[in-house]
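Before the break, one more example. Copy the sequence into your notebook; we will annotate it together after we see the structure.
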Amino acid sequence: MQTQTLGLNIFDQMKYIAFDWRDSLSFSKKLALALAVACLTGLSAQISFHLAGTPVPITMQTFAVLLSAILLGKNWGGISQVIYAGLGFMGIPWFAGFSGGPSFLFGPTMGYIVGFIVAAFFIGYIIDEYIKKRSFIKLLGLMFFANFIIIYGIGLLWLYFWTKSISGHSLSFYSLYLMGAFPFLIGDMIKIFAVSIVSKSIALNSRF
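Here is what the structure looks like once it is written out:
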């Protein structure tokens, strides 16, 4: 610890100690933290707005999902989202609009929820394994990739098959984009910038 923190200012040393403390926690305490972050995701899902023309609501979930990987790191950020999804499918009403239950397995937002899990595992792995990615610009790029490639990619793919099963015909890529991506672009960009700023303030910087 001491050799790793030499040459750092006090604030950076405190951040290092905090992350080292997180990694040294027992399994039960890590699980408790993952459950707490799952609850945070559930609370953020209740800040939701429905728009005409899309079955997918605007929520604050993306902020909580991206932040979960920064707070909990490799594996446990993703596990927090597995807990969120699993308990939600089991009936805890913490999906958007205080809803939950197995019906969500066949709903339009299932792909986005799976995307949350994959994105959290991905970001947590990159953050913990590639420390130089912790500069603000690299964090921002990482968040953009996780949100617009991973979450949107899985979400839109599922939405395509869901609409096809409901309507009996396939949507064009443009129609799918208007339904499952376009309404959320500005809000997601704001959330990405916000979580990148928060992440940079708590994550170890690129000098490690």
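The chain has nine helices and no strands. The chain has one domain: 26-202. Try to locate both features in your own notes.
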